[in-house]
Structures are given as C-alpha cells and as structure tokens.
Design the sequence.
C-alpha cells in the first residue's frame, strides 16, 4: 500500500512539476562560484607532513581526511575540481611497518590513564606496511619529514634506503619508481593548480632536536647535511625555484606557504623556562649552594693555575641568586675559558622542548641542583668555615644538573633558526610574487594564533597545548581545525589572486585533539 | 470495527509534516482536495474529524470514511559561504484516518474517529553539516476519539468527545559538531520512546441558518505527550574518562506538546453543482517552548533546545463541482503560516510559510460507496534561516543556511453510507 501510493505520487509529480525542490542558485550545481583565472581541474599538493595531514606524531586516516589540501579540494569540487587522491594509510593508528617490523610509533591521543589528561601513545598493532606499494598517482604529494632538497632527490622513495635514512618511508609507499623524485611524480600529473609548502623541516628538525645539529649556512652540498641541520639559504632558494618551475610549467596557478616561526609552537612554548618554583627557604638554600659553588670554583681554578683575581671574577658568574617564586632553570653550555664549568641560568627568551623529562625537572633537580644528603653535608662544613676535602668539593661541583642541549633551544640556536626562517621566507614571498602565485603568510597567521587567537563562530583557536585547538598532541603539527584554518586562508588568498569565489571553510566543524584511554 | 482500527494502526506508521511545525493536515480526502477546508462541510464521515457537531446533520444513518495519504517531502539546505549542502531522504509518511458515524435518532448521533494529526519524518544525510542538531526524526501521534453530536434545534448542533492519544518518537543526532571515536565515527545519540499516551478533548458547534449555508467551529485541546524512561542509545563515544558519556543505553524523560487547534469555517452550496468552503485555522503552537531531553542519570548532561514557537494561522479555501451523478471534482488552496520564529529555524522541522495547492475527486461506485482521491502539492518559499540557540561552551552558535522544501501528498480513501 505504501509503495503503491508512493508510485502514484511520483508519477503525479512527474506529470505536473519537478519533484525536487530547487534553489534559485544551487551550490551543488556550480551555479554560484567561479574559478576566475584558475583551473582547479587537477589540483596537486606538494610538501611535507603539513601537506600530508600528519598530526599527533603520526599519519593516520582521519588526519589525512582533514589535510588542508583535501579540505581545499572539497571546495574546489564546486568550481570544477576533480577527485583528490591521497595515499591513504591503512588505519587510524598511524604506526608504520617495514617488513613487518614497526618503525614508527602510533599516534598520540589524550588520555587520563595517568591520572591527569596527558598525551599517550594509542594502543594497537598498525597495519600500514611500507612495502605494500600503492598504485597510481596521488594528488596529495605531502611527504612527512621531507626537507626542500629531498623533494628533488632521486631514490627518496626507494624502500632499500629507508633503514640507512637515505629514503623516506612515506614516499616509498607511493613513489612511481625506486629512483623517482617527489617533484617529478607531482609534475608528471600535469597539475592545473598546485600548492607548495616546503622548508619547515629545513629548520624545524634542527629546532626540535634542541639544536644539536649544525647550521649549514655556507655549505652548498646538501648531501653532506645531517638530519638535524639547518639548510643553507642559497640551497633552499635554488631548490625552491626549481620546485616552483616544475609545478608551474603547465599550471594555471598555485598557492605557496611560508615558514612559521617555530618559537610560537607549543612544542617550545608549553614548558616554561622558569618553572623552578621555590619557597623562601629553598631559594635561600639554592643561593647558598651557589655561593659555596663559586667559592669551590675559585679554589679549583686557582689550583689549575688561573691567577687568583681572574679566578674569582670567573667563579663569580656561578654565584647565582634564587628568589622565592618562579626561577629560570640552569642550562648546560659548552665549557669555555669564559664559562669553565659549562652552565649558566637560562635567559628569558630561551626555550625548553615539549619532550623534556618534566618529572626530572620537578623531582630530581634537573635544571638546578641535585641536593643529596652528602652534598648537604659538604655545604654544612663550608657554612661552619671548614675546608672540604677535594673529593667533597667535587661532590658540590657535580651536584649541578643543568638542562642538556638537546632539551633546550638557546639564544644562539634561536638566532640561527630565525635567520634561516627570514631568509627562506624572503625567497618564498619573492618567488610567489615573481610567478604571480597566491601566497599564504603562515608566519603571520601563526603569530596571530599564538597571541590574539583566531575567533570563529563557536570559540577562539589558540596555540595553547592540548586546549588551544590549533596544534595536535605532538605540539608541532596542526589539528584538523588548524588545517581547516590553513585551507580557509589559502582559499581566500587564491580568490584574491585569481578572481575566483571558492567558498571558505567553517573551522568549527573540524575537531581538535582525540580522547582515548586505549593507550600503551 | 475495533479489529479494523487496530489493523490500520499496525499496518500504517503514521507521520509527516504539513501545516506548520509537525501538524499533518490530511484528515480526509474530500476536505483535503478542497484545501483542507472542512469545518463546515457535512458530506461524509470526514465530518467526524473536522466538526463532530456536524455528524448529526449527516443524512444517512451510517457513514464510514477511511483513507490514507503518502507524504513525500523534500528539503534541501545549503550554505553559500562555505559551499556545504545537504538534502533529506525522508521515507514516505503515511498519515491515515478512519471515521464512523451512526445516527441514533434525529437529534443524536455517535461516532468514532481514528486519525493522525501530528507527525514528522525528516531524514538528513547522516553526519551532514547540521547533524549536531538532527540526523533524523520520526514522530507520530495517533488520536482515537469517541464522539457524540446533539441537534439542539433545526439550525444548531453541538458535538465533541474525549481524545485518547498515543505517540512514538525517534530522534537521532550527533553529540556535538566534532567529537568522534578513535576511527573518526561521529559520536551519536538516538532517543526513542513509544506508546506514550495522554488524554484530550474536542468540542464543536454548527449553525445552519439555511439549507445552503452553514458555519461551524471546532476546538481540539492540547495534548502533551510525555515520554518517561525512554531509551537514549549513545554510540561511537570515545573510550575516555574525559568524555562525560559512554556507549550504551540511558533513560530519558521528555515532553512534546500536540498543540490545541481552533477552526472556524463556512460552507455554501451556491448551486446544485457548486459548493464553496472557507476555513480559518489557529494552532496554539506557543505550547512548544522547548524540546528538553532530561536524562535520568544525573551524570549525563541534559539537552536543552529552545523552540519558542508562536501561535500560527492557516487560511483555507476549497470548492467542489458535481461533474456528473457519479463524479465530484474538487480543488482548493491554503496559506499556512509557520509557527517558527526568526532564529529558531531548526532543521528537524524546517518549515517556513507555505502554500498548499489541492485537487481531487470522488467517484461513486454505487449509491453507498465512493472512492475519494486527493492530491496536495505544498510549496515553500526559499528561505535564509538560522537556528541561533545551539550552545557551545556557553556560547550560542548559529546554524545558518538557505532552505528550500516541497511536498507531494497523494491520498486515497473510500466513503460508505447506508
């Protein structure tokens, strides 16, 4: 009866009128938006983890679906854009297997299993086997971990080179051949429109390693670079120009992104450098300790043959005063004539990494002094005007526990990072202008995220770790909402550059960090 | 008869829109073909619904009308700023009616009505942009009403009776705009209750100053259907101590008003062949203030959804032409105001002002039996609307867009008299 009536109804409406309600201008039927001078038919995105949709320290399906180029492609569909193919991971765990062996961790989730909300590694056995080659070409050519020159490096997708670090496991999954380069595989798709966001890792891997690498400014041979080094600006400029030329050869246009300031990201802003909280007695005790330290240091230097006056002057830098309340930590530096004991207090601008052992900072005197009973005993001797034995003096000197180089970014390192960023960004913006490309000033946008925040309909997105909404749990990569924001800004820039009217993105519809207590 | 009614209830799941809010105005194929202007019509057992006081004025001793409609509604939504769009794929609703009247003597008639005045069936694409407000809703109420009609004089009669209402509701939506389980499946809640019952009444009066002219009014009371201990099923909730919900079933209480309705109408038999009818209809939608879902478990946050409906009017007009001794042709039109205020346009009942165009006919098989068919096309203007009262962290987050809807409602029934 129900069906019978339905057929009567359908034939009736077919006779009289259109059954479907229709808008005057339909979004779905491309009635509204124009592509302007751009042709979005075949959109190809080239870049690193930020293009791939990497988040929470892994690449996984949900993140890929929220990659900024994928979000853009859903809008391009309304102005003639075609399918946007991505080299999808096998699961939402995100770990990688090489020959059955897991070579990268699963994604981070926010868990309360430790008692308070904290990132933890999601439990489960990942299914993404690198040697399972994906067939076909992919519009999303974002390769997590890639630096600028990697995109033009033959063999970067050769599975045989993964263990030695010569090749990239993510690119190995979908490289067209063992000798293929990322840029060749991208250009051979004849993109009608492209995005290029590269250069972050040329600086970032130095920064996230705590600056243990080398600033390679002046070294024009990237094959000699270590993985944590900063790329020479001329190498970057030359590679970037080649990449753009390859992508732009037959394209109607493209959009390029500059490099954000790494010192704004939660990876460096979450652990404050002055988290050494002391009460009055503790402050007095520590100050006393370092007065003692300075005294012992003077004696030690004199014994090493340093003239007394000079020894006293040098040792004075270790008589650090601590106050009630927050105090900056101590940081380790290369021992030198000026700083023979190789540590100092952190400056206001210096940064601690998200990965630092925060338990050690709070509980074992990491970043200050490990005040063992033996050390206290020596301090007592000194207080009573006694003279400690050389062994006892050594105990005091060794009790200082400064933060290691790999856990912090010091002033010099920050300077190197900033200089490289300024230089890279000048290259990117200059080439964007020269080629008439749309340009997204991510550096400026991320400054805004980290200061005022980005206001959207249902809230404010900031760079605060976990709660801010922009950054995923690794503190470096963005959340789906963060990527949606990038996509929206890119679309606005494209619309301004090419006279198109591609609709923008409601970032409130995109999630942030994922909760789960199914953790390792 | 009881068995037939029961069968009808079992076979047909009543539902769907038409007339603002979740009122479904399809309570008689003859009147429906005339713009659903039926208060002052006295021509079949349909009178039992439109105007119980009129049944004593029916010529025949026994009158029966049964019928069913198929409601095929389509709603499209789009947001030009973001390029998002979606459309409903709602199953055909099948509101039905069954009326019987019996003339005990010249001044007293009795009757029984079963009808489905309220219902709604809207099914959006799962996880569409407004899925934090609704994925789908299926609401149906069946009214069962015994009647008495008394002729007070040659020109005046009164009538009415108690109403027993029973309703079902299913409502599905996502927990919020973003939360998913670990695999990206949107966290969801489905609330369901059936066999929710309550009582109401209706009363009416007919004045027929001449044989050819009649005026009548009917008032049907509000009935509030209160779901108690209904089942709310949570799914795709992440396994996390940070989420104040978990997969599984929780009980809820909620109430939904079936608002009162007042109808005043006139019917004029202009010539032997031509009959005209005019109705004014007021629905007291102010009763629909909030859609609140109170979870019995205090650890689950209640869902507060302001609706703030306003009373609304419909204006109905219809005519009938006796084409031959066997065929009556009918046509009609109505204008139906929405009860939805600006800023309260929620996509579970996406109804703005509408116009209904109706047509139909009756074919007399013999002196006693006729087949009644009707067709209703409801046209809604394209409208830019928003629901502004969805709360995120204490902040109202509007859901905006352009809506365009229509509905096709064919119906068929039979009338029997003896």
Sequence:
């Amino acid at each position: 009866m129900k069906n019978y009536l339905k057929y009567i109804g359908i034939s009736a409406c077919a006779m009289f009128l259109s059954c479907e309600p229709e808008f005057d201008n339909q979004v779905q039927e491309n009635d509204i938006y124009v592509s302007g001078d751009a042709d979005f038919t075949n959109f190809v995105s080239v870049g690193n983890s930020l293009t791939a949709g990497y988040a929470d320290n892994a690449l996984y399906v949900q993140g890929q679906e929220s990659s900024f180029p994928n979000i853009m492609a859903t809008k391009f569909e309304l102005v003639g854009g075609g399918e946007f193919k991505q080299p999808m991971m096998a699961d939402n765990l995100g770990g990688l297997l090489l020959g059955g062996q897991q070579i990268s961790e699963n994604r981070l989730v926010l868990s309360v299993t430790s008692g308070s909300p904290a990132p933890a590694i999601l439990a489960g056995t990942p299914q993404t086997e690198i040697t399972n080659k994906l067939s076909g070409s992919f519009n999303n050519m974002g390769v997590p971990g890639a630096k600028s020159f990697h995109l033009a490096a033959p063999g970067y997708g050769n599975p045989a080179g993964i263990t030695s670090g010569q090749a990239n496991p993510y690119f190995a999954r979908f490289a067209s051949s063992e000798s293929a380069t990322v840029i060749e595989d991208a250009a051979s798709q004849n993109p009608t429109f492209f995005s290029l966001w590269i250069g972050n890792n040329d600086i970032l891997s130095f920064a996230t390693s705590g600056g243990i690498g080398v600033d390679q400014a002046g070294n024009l041979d990237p094959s000699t670079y270590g993985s944590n080094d900063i790329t020479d600006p001329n190498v970057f400029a030359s590679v970037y120009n080649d990449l753009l030329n390859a992508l732009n050869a037959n394209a109607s246009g493209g959009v390029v992104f500059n490099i954000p300031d790494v010192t704004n990201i939660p990876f460096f802003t979450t652990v404050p450098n002055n988290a050494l909280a002391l009460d009055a007695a503790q402050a007095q005790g520590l100050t006393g300790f370092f007065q003692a330290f300075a005294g012992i240091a003077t004696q030690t230097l004199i014994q090493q043959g340093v003239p007394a006056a000079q020894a006293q002057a040098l040792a004075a830098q270790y008589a650090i005063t601590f106050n009630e309340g927050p105090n900056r930590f101590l940081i380790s530096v290369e021992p030198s004539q000026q700083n023979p004991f190789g540590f100092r207090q952190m400056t206001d601008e210096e940064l601690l990494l998200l990965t630092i052992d925060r338990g050690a900072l709070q509980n074992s005197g990491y970043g200050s002094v490990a005040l063992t009973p033996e050390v206290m005993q020596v301090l007592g001797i000194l207080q009573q005007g006694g003279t400690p034995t050389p062994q006892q003096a050594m105990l005091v000197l060794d009790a200082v526990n400064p933060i290691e180089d790999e856990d912090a970014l010091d002033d010099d390192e920050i300077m190197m990072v900033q200089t490289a960023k300024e230089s890279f960004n000048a290259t990117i913006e200059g080439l964007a202008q020269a080629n008439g490309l749309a340009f997204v000033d991510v550096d400026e946008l991320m400054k805004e995220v980290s200061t005022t925040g980005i206001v959207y309909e249902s809230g404010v997105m900031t760079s605060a770790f976990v709660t801010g909404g922009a950054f995923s749990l690794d503190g470096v990569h963005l959340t789906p909402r963060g990527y949606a924001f990038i996509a929206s800004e890119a679309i606005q820039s494209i619309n301004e550059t090419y006279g198109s009217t591609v609709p923008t993105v409601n970032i409130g519809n995109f999630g942030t960090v994922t909760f789960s207590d199914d953790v390792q | 008869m009881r068995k037939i009614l029961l069968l009808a209830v079992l076979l047909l799941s009543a539902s769907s829109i038409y007339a603002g809010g979740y009122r479904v105005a399809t309570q008689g194929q003859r009147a429906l073909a005339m713009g659903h202007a039926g208060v002052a019509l006295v021509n079949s057992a349909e009178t039992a619904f439109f105007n119980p006081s009129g049944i004593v004025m029916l010529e025949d001793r026994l009158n029966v009308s049964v019928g069913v409609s198929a409601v095929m509604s389509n709603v499209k939504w789009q947001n030009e700023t973001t390029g998002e769009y979606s459309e409903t794929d709602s199953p055909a609703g099948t509101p039905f009616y069954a009326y019987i009247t019996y003339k005990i003597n010249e001044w007293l008639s009795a009757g029984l009505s079963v009808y489905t005045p309220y219902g709604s069936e809207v099914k959006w694409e799962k996880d569409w942009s407004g899925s934090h407000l609704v994925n789908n809703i299926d609401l149906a109420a069946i009214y069962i009403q015994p009647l008495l009609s008394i002729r007070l004089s040659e020109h005046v009669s009164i009538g009415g009776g108690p109403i027993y209402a029973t309703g079902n509701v299913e409502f599905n939506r996502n927990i919020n705009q973003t939360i998913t389980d670990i695999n990206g499946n949107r966290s969801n809640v489905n609330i369901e209750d059936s066999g929710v019952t309550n009582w109401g009444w209706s009363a009416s009066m007919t004045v027929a100053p001449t044989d050819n002219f009649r005026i009548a009014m009917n008032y049907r009371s509000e009935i509030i259907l209160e779901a108690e201990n209904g089942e709310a099923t949570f799914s795709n909730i992440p396994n996390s101590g940070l989420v104040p919900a978990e997969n599984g079933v929780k009980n809820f209480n909620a109430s939904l008003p079936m608002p009162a309705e007042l109808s005043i109408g006139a019917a004029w038999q202009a010539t032997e062949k031509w009959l005209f009818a005019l109705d004014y209809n007021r629905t007291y939608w102010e009763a629909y203030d909030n859609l609140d879902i109170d979870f019995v478990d205090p650890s689950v946050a209640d869902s507060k959804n302001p609706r703030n409906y306003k009373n609304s009017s419909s204006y109905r007009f219809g005519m009938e032409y006796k084409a031959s001794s066997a065929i009556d042709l009918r046509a009609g039109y109505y204008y139906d105001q929405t009860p939805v205020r600006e800023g309260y346009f929620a996509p579970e009942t996406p109804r703005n002002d509408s116009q209904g165009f109706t047509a139909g006919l009756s074919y007399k098989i013999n002196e006693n039996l006729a087949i009644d068919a009707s067709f209703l096309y409801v046209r809604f203007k394209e409208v830019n609307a928003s629901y502004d009262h969805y709360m995120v962290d204490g902040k109202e987050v509007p859901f905006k867009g352009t809506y365009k809807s229509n509905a096709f409602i064919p119906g068929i029934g039979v009338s029997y008299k003896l």
